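User: Before I run my own analysis I want an independent prediction to cross-check against. Here's the chain; please return only the structure tokens and, at the end, one sentence I can use as a sanity check.
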Amino acid sequence: MKPAQKVVWEDRPARYRRPLIQAIAVALVSVIFIGLILIMGIRDLRTIDRTLMGFLENRGQGVINVVERLAQENINTLVQGQQQRHDDTFVPLAEEAFSPQRLLIRALVNIGREVDTNWKADRLSENTLRKMVAEKNLWMIAVFDKGGRAVFQSRSLPSSLAGSQGAEGVAIEDFARLGRDGKVGFIALRRRDGSGTIIIALDPKGARYWGLKVAIEKAIGELGAGQRQNLLYLVIMDRQGKVLGSTGQGPQTWRPGEFHLPELLDGRRRIESRKGAWQGKNILDMAIPVTLNNRIEGVARIGLDRSRSDSVLRENERNMLVFMAFIVAITLLAMGLLYFNQNRHMERLVEITRQLEKAERLSALGQLAAGVAHEIRNPLNAISMASQRLKREYLPDDPDKVRDFGILTGVIRDEIRRLNGIIEEFLTFSKSRRLELREYSVVEVLQKIVNLVREEAVTKGIALETRWGEDPLVIPMDVDKLQQAMLNFIKNAMESISGAGTVLVSAGLQSRERLVITVSDTGCGMTPEEVERIFNPEYTTKEKGLGLGMTLAHEIIRGHGGEIRVKSEAGAGTTVEVILPTESRKS
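Assistant: Structure tokens:
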């Protein structure tokens, strides 16, 4: 069984704990204010993020613009070289003009080396050549032996190319002759030992592909350190998805759904970017159309390291969080101060209200007491005298009625006495605040009360114990009223005990300024509701009387400048502590 909860009552006002409307309103306003700051902070962070991403996009676009410019220059150089080769007039070209052409010839020579290696390893076939032609955007590859017979060829050899394989003094690293058959250009590569020749032919589509590839690879190689800063990879692919040039270890293929390639190739999107990770680094992956000769030739995929932009964003996030924490701390502090201040004023207001209500009740009781005393006492005296005369002079002659007559007259007498006691209680209550203080011993007052009620306690089987030292504990008091108050406390303690029990009365100094009188009993105790109401004038648990004894005692103690504390537990008794000042209050 759950034990009863101990209840502690003090005559001082209990702390006002109900939530204040003002504090709730401030809390709501603060929550809204913090929410607005949070929303604004998030919007600012998103704006900063978009700005940083825009900066990286502009940087990526700038890199592609440089590549486009350099690649366009390389393409123009290639075109110029081809025009001069087939023109009747000859204009010497600068060294820079030969560079793209050499790169193109070198790329085709590398293909010839690969074919030659497979030929030597006996891994060459016409299917192998067709596959290589398709992969490398060539028109034809043909292999001839020492006697000029075609050993392998990806397609039939045009008659206009006959005899090209017989050129002398050509090493495999150099080109023999660049010829034309309509719109098909070719180079012939002879082995150093003269055991055979390899011919690689390009149609306009292949020539365009290899011209773009060489121009873009050379342009990427010419990127300066400024353009390569934060550049993790750059891959340029044509419309068919073949790599035209790259730098760094970037993705060489497009996964479906990564970017909107048709819109980029059609020019409907200038740039497309997304955040991602690559080789353990946070990057901004971008796809940008590459325009050469006023035509979109492909798409560049570029990855920029965004660690610096992320650090800037994190710094702003930290600043926002610190600012938010500062605002929240100020708000909570303001709410706490407001709640404390409002709570303190509310406590005072409640205390004043309670005192006013109590003063009104006591004033009404005092006025009622004076009226009752004036209006009832005289009739009561007349009734008392009449009942005494009836009992003395008008006894019935019938012996059987004498007993009933005595009972009736006794009831009248007892009720008159009870009414008179009520009147006296009212009169005492109305005069309880008018105190006449003088120095007197608390021990003598308590001992007198104990001697007065000891016989009654013995009759009821109650042990009445006292505990105080030899110190008389002299304080300023109204002796009669303080004695009346303490008598009420002790008699209530005795009345709470049914059967055997103990009442302990003690007194002692709590400090130099305060003295404590304690009355403890082992009675029935009180519920929390009873503890809260025991000092209300309108509350009583007695069948007879008005229940003004505790209210009267409370007013007397308050009149002395003291306090009352009640500690009670249902079924375990009650303890009443009366705290009195040891010195008179200064008016």
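Sanity check: Residues 1-5, 11-17, 87-95, 163-182 have pLDDT under 50 and may be disordered.
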